[in-house]
Design a protein that fits this description.
Shape: globular
Organism: Pararhizobium polonicum
Helix content: under 10%
Number of strands: 20
InterPro entries: DUF2460
GO molecular function: hydrolase activity
Number of helices: 2
Keywords: Hydrolase
Structural class: mainly beta
Pfam families: DUF2460
Length: about 210
Amino acid sequence: MPTGFHEVRFPLRLALGTSGGPVRRTDIVSLSNGRENRNRRWRDARRHYDAGSGIRSIGDLYAVLEFFEARAGQFYGFRFRDPLDFRSCAPEGTVSAGDQVIGTGDGVTAAFQLIKTYGDAGGATIREIAKPVAGTVVVSVAGVAVAPADFALDAAAGRVTFVPSKIPAGGAVVRAGYEFDVPVRFDTDRIDVDLAQFQAGRIPSIPLVEIKP
């Protein structure tokens, strides 16, 4: 993760009304014969959100202003919980140690990056998970749950490291389950407050953009 990141989360109650999601960049050239050439400019999606719709009260307004000032506008990144996609499983599911394949042991490698695979019969995309939530990560090797004492989690980078005596054997599939945040920053250096009426108000737009590791 680039410098200028605070390991704090945007207030969860304000994130619940967020709109937005993944954005991709694709170049499409229409040919004279009616066919298309398509080029995927970005390997991974970049998520954009607008948290303005989550503001409900003067207290919420102040919470946003305080958080914005503490991040110095766009300067410092922070954690943000996507209301729809924040678990290794479906949003209404229960995290389990078998949710996501994160690698295969070779008897030597101790560290594994957390990832999440989105796929179906037509294809799949792999997303690197850089900001897991500490205390939610569970791991299994070859289908057997790993005790918390047998691995360490780098919650700032999303890496699981096994202790020397528990390094996965060759061919053993390593899986993990977790909750996670998205690393983002404000996509503006200006917050416009509309005090529509006494003890109420709104911030029409609070744009956030994902920071890539």
